[in-house]
Design brief:
Number of domains: 2
Shape: globular
Number of helices: 10
Distance between the termini: 17 Å
Order of helices and strands: EHHEEEEEHEHEHEHEEHEHEHEH
Number of strands: 14
Strand order of the largest sheet: 9-8-7-10-11-14-12-13
Oligomer: single chain
CATH class of the largest domain: Alpha Beta
Length: 318
Amino acid sequence: MQVISAQEIDRLLDYPSLIVALRDAFGGTMVAPVRHHHEVGSGAGHATHLIMPAWTGDAPGGGFVGTKIVNVFPANSAKGLPAVYGSYLLQSGETGAPLVVLDGTRLTHWRTAAASALAASFLARDDAAHLLVIGAGALAPELIKAHSAVRPIKAVTLWNHRRESAERLAASLAGSPYKLAIADDLAAAVAGADIISCATLSQQPIVLGQWLQPGTHVDLVGAFNMAMREADDAALLRAKVFVDTPAAKHEGGDVAVALHAGAVPEAHIRGDLAALCAGKVHGRDDASDITLFKSVGASIEDLAAAMLVWRKSQAKAA
């Protein structure tokens, strides 16, 4: 059985082809059961074990079956280890035989950024050229590359609650084909951006609705539990809101929190990626619309990305 590392995933994937793969997946017949979520241990040893299966609509008898396994051990930081480990097992949909194990963490970075870009292809203005990235973690450079694959990004502004992290990110992006800036005034940066992509662990809203200008698209990637928020209720109420899957209505922060509190009615959520890809709902109707996309992640995205990596690796080996 083949093993594909994070470095090999980076060599094999590109955002234009991955975005197309995700569009085909959301418009197709993949099956994605509810993810398995288990709490392991207690106290300082508390951890979370996630299992995310999916398979193509013609499996068994063809296609692929895939499962992502993710372990979240918050106490690892004290040991100098990553808090999150992930692996992805891709199997034959015809025989069930294992085909390849992929670095699940890196695969997640790619598919998460690609899903945001897929949403932006429906929701951001065609002429959106100024991207604001809030957060300076591992997803930040991927979100820049992904959004640049669907919109003519010419300027990128970075903001992070610790400025030095934004400075390190900017240094790593030296030589990129867009003008880079680091913001200290977040309100002004939000007001000046065409696309705002937010990937943080914030527990309080950091994008306020009163800052948003007509024509802005907001992309919310962080806030993965009900204790986290990246945008306030006013931002959601001012925007046309879309989610990656219906799970975003009860998982993660932002949309789920606002719905649970009754601050936003469920009818305010206009649709998900499957509906957008199938043309069942309209995204942006007018250049002045404020749009918002909330992502919580989906096993369909993992399977589509793993299939693309596998096919590209096979073509390379041929």
